[in-house]
Design a protein that fits this description.
By secondary structure, the protein is α/β, with parallel strands linked by helices. The chain has a single domain, classed as NAD(P)-binding Rossmann-like Domain (Rossmann fold, 3-Layer(aba) Sandwich), CATH 3.40.50.720. It contains ten helices and seven strands. The site of NADP nicotinamide-adenine-dinucleotide phosphate (NAP) has 29 residues, from helix 1 and helix 6.
């Protein structure tokens, strides 16, 4: 087992990328504080993590859609009286459809989960992170942050916010102990597509996506190296580079076309 690196709080740690990041952090010597709604799944991830890091895994059941959930998490973290050295803002959700056809309340809830929760948690936990000699904030954005995309307007907007906020915060904190890293994954094979109502995209996700483990490894490696931003996977990095070189309008047309073609007709 690696050295004791203090504790990492991971939101959305019951499955998918959050669970994989929690296990990767445990492998690197972090204790893990796991947050999500599904108690039983959290318990299973905690057991796996505990086997990797000498039993340092705790769980907290919270629904992050609830307005008071972040405060409850902060209080719980404080009450544990542990050395917090890492915050992973991973919990997030997608919604696929045309902006004016998706219910407004669902889009606002997603904005709360994808943006307000990371901002609130980071703001409230930064004083704790600053107490450590070296600490980290890891923000899970998405490759959708690199191009405007029809049918993912609010989701893509929320991930663009997360990336820009993450990089700005990093600059603000550059003279202190807290390093901020944003991760922009492409397709990952998790429960995400089903929850986002994107089953019609599943075949593409399976063809070009990966499991969450390599993404978690790349994310934790970049975080520990103090990188500002990482796109896991060579194909994704090539795609992001090509997107950056294309005229914006053409890029938006191509990226939107892939999704619009498969969007079920109402
Ligand atoms: N999958 C992809 O293709 C992909 C690509 C780029 C970026 N991402 C980003 O990666 C992150 C993780 O997604 P994933 O692919 O691992 O999706 P996932 O399998 O659906 O996992 C989402 C996690 O977030 C938790 N969560 C969702 N809503 C919550 C709520 N209201 N309160 C508390 N926890 C909540 C879920 O736990 P409970 O249901 O137990 O609460 C689960 O642990 C997200 O931010 C997503 O935007 C995903």
């Amino acid at each position: 087992m690696n050295e004791d690196r203090g504790y990492a709080l991971i939101t959305g740690a019951s499955q998918g990328l959050g669970a994989a990041i929690a296990l990767e952090l445990a492998r690197h010597g972090f204790g893990v504080l796991l947050v999500a709604r599904s108690e039983e799944s959290l318990r299973r991830v905690a057991e796996e993590a505990a086997a990797l890091n000498g039993g340092r895994a705790r769980t907290f059941v919270a629904d992050l859609f609830a307005p008071d959930a972040t405060e409850a998490i902060v209080e719980w973290t404080r009450s544990l009286n542990l050395s917090l050295t890492c915050l992973v803002n991973n919990a997030g959700q997608g919604l696929w459809g045309l902006f004016d056809e998706l219910p407004l309340d669902e889009q606002l809830r997603m904005m709360h989960l994808n943006m307000d929760v990371p901002v609130k948690l980071t703001h409230r936990l930064l004083p704790h992170l600053k107490r450590a000699q070296r600490s980290y904030v890891l923000n899970i954005s998405s490759m959708t942050a690199y191009s405007a995309m029809a049918s993912l307007a609010v989701y893509g907007g929320s991930k663009t916010f997360l990336l820009r906020w993450s990089r700005s915060l990093r600059v603000e904190l550059k003279n202190g102990p807290v390093s901020v890293t944003a991760v922009c994954p492409g397709s990952i094979i998790t429960g995400f597509t089903e929850r986002a109502g994107m089953m019609a995209m599943d075949d593409l996700a399976r063809k070009f996506g990966t499991g969450p483990e390599p993404v978690a490894k790349a994310a934790v490696r970049a975080m520990l190296r103090g990188k500002a931003e990482v796109v896991p996977g060579l194909l994704n990095r090539i795609t992001a580079t090509v997107q950056g070189l294309m005229p914006k309008g053409l890029n938006e047309k191509v990226a939107s076309g892939i999704y619009l073609k498969r969007l079920p007709k109402k």
